[in-house]
Amino acid sequence: QGVLILERNFRSRTGEIDIIGKDKEYLVFYEVKYRKSSLKGHPEEAVNYKKIRTICKVSDYYRLIKNISDDAYIRFDVLALNDEEINHIKNAFNYTI
To answer: Is the separation of the CB atoms in 52 and 3 below 8 Å?
Structure first.
């Protein structure tokens, strides 16, 4: 899809971001969720408010240690895998703190 993968499983004391990539001018933070079936709900439904806050905090830490400007274009995407179906939700949520 033309995305340059910068990091996988980036961790801080606060939490983890599954994938960090560069998509044109955007720094993209990806949350990957998998479900074998939809019996327990769709994978994207597992990205709740608490998870979003954690991702945003870890993204702040990443930008701090990599000296990335607060003015940089960032995006939060979700890759929802349901068995063999992949749903890429671009701009799945806004920055929240």
So the answer is: no
